[in-house]
Write the structure tokens for this entry.
Amino acid sequence: DTGVSQDPRHKITKRGQNVTFRCDPISEHNRLYWYRQTLGQGPEFLTYFQNEAQLEKSRLLSDRFSAERPKGSFSTLEIQRTEQGDSAMYLCASSVSAAYSTETQYFGPGTRLLVL
Amino acid sequence: AQSVTQPDIHITVSEGASLELRCNYSYGATPYLFWYVQSPGQGLQLLLKYFSGDTLVQGIKGFEAEFKRSQSSFNLRKPSVHWSDAAEYFCAVVIPGGYQKVTFGTGTKLQVIP
């Protein structure tokens, strides 16, 4: 399977705990995006990487959130001191950029987080 | 900032009937337009996309969408719905140039009845 993969698929945690999610993009995709989807809503952009550089962060991404893509391949999203409002589906997408060309983002299956 | 409106939260159709899901966008120029489908508990699958050219685009699973610049719309259609089409459908836009943050609508949940 050469699609975007995410791990874990489900996570239940207690309020105040830290959690970390992983995303493995499609090979050779240089762009990677994180989105958050709450119940009944469409996904909302969180952050974006081009290779290993984090180039954009949404205001939705509070100080408790941090994302990395250390080698320009897989990415991690960490949430510290989780709150019940963090309960959501966290989606990762990847794409390949090309000058003067359009791109299509391919999404992973998501990690569903429940904070008790 | 760009926005996407999907006016129908829920739609119910009979199997075999035709389907049209509405999408309107707000942006000063023509964005890139997408339709994604999400089955329960799953990620998003791309159905089709419009970047330029022919305003009627064909996608996977028998879906098509028509871009109408005058109406700022990109409605999704299927002539005959199958029970397996029951899912949530998201219209999305991307502003050309730079990195391409996707802005999604709130989704339309499709129920298919026998």
